[in-house]
C-alpha cells in the first residue's frame, strides 16, 4: 500500500468557508474522507495543514522514508517561498503541486510558481479534484 501526505499551506484551513465562489463549499476534512474511501486498500493518506511556512518545510523534510509522495497545495507560499522550493529540492520524496483554482486565471502575481520547477508536475483548476489528479500522478 502506498502512503501519501496531503500537505496544505496557508488559509486552506478555511476551505469550504472562504471565497466559496472560487473554492466551493466542501471542507477539506470532508474531501479527505472522500479521497480515502476512493483509494481504500491502495493508499493510506495523512493530512497536514499549516499557515506557518517553517512547519510546511519540516513536514517535507520529515517525509523521507515515511511517504511515497506528497500532494502539496502551498497556497500563497507558491508564489513567494524560496525556502519551500529548497525543501522540495532537498528531499527524494516526489511532490506534485496542486491548486484548486487555476493560478493562471487569477491575479498576475499568482501566475508564477516558485515551486513548480522542482516538483514532479503541477495540476490546477479542477477544484478539489486537483488533489485526486495529484494522487494519480504519484501512483503512475
Description of the structure:
The chain has helices at 20-23, 28-38, 53-61, 82-90, 129-139; strands at 2-8, 43-49, 69-73, 95-99, 121-124. The chain is α/β, with parallel strands linked by helices and 140 residues long. It has one domain: Dehydroquinase, class II (Rossmann fold, 3-Layer(aba) Sandwich). Helix 4 (82-90) links the parallel strand 3 and strand 4. Helix 3 runs parallel beside helix 4. The mean pLDDT is 93.
Mind sketching the topology for me?
Elements: E1 2-8, H1 20-23, H2 28-38, E2 43-49, H3 53-61, E3 69-73, H4 82-90, E4 95-99, E5 121-124, H5 129-139
Parallel strand pairs: 1-2, 1-3, 3-4, 4-5
Helix pairs in contact: 3-4
Could you give a quick summary of the protein structure above?
This protein has 140 residues and is α/β, with parallel strands linked by helices. Helices cover 31% and strands 20% of the residues.
DSSP, total strands:
5
Roughly what fraction of the amino acids lie in strands?
Answer: 15-25%
Largest sheet: 5 strands, parallel
> What would the average pLDDT be, to the nearest integer?
93
Which superfamily, in CATH terms, is the homologous superfamily?
Dehydroquinase, class II
Q: Structural class given helices, strands, pairing?
A: alpha/beta
Total DSSP helices? 5
According to CATH, the fold-level topology is Rossmann fold
Unreliably modeled segments: none
Question: Helical residue percent?
Answer: 25-40%
Principal-axes shape call:
globular
The quaternary organization reads as single chain
Biggest sheet: strands side by side, in what order?
2-1-3-4-5
Cα distance spanning the termini? 14 Å
Overall tally of structural domains: 1
Give the C-alpha Rg.
Answer: 14 Å
Question: CATH top level?
Answer: Alpha Beta
The CATH architecture assignment turns out to be 3-Layer(aba) Sandwich
Helix and strand sequence: EHHEHEHEEH
Amino acid at each position: 500500500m502506498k502512503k501519501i501526505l496531503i500537505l496544505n499551506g496557508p488559509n486552506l484551513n478555511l476551505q469550504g468557508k472562504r471565497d466559496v465562489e472560487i473554492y466551493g463549499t466542501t471542507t477539506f476534512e470532508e474531501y479527505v474522507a472522500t479521497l480515502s474511501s476512493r483509494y481504500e486498500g491502495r493508499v493510506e493518506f495523512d493530512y497536514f495543514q499549516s499557515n506557518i511556512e517553517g512547519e510546511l518545510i519540516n513536514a517535507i523534510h520529515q517525509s523521507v522514508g515515511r511517504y511515497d509522495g506528497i500532494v502539496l497545495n502551498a497556497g500563497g507560499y507558491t508564489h513567494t517561498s524560496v525556502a519551500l522550493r529548497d525543501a522540495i529540492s532537498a528531499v527524494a520524496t516526489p511532490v506534485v503541486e496542486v491548486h484548486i483554482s487555476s493560478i493562471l486565471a487569477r491575479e498576475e502575481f499568482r501566475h508564477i510558481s516558485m515551486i513548480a520547477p522542482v516538483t514532479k508536475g503541477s495540476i490546477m483548476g479542477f477544484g478539489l479534484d486537483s488533489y485526486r489528479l495529484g494522487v494519480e500522478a504519484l501512483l503512475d
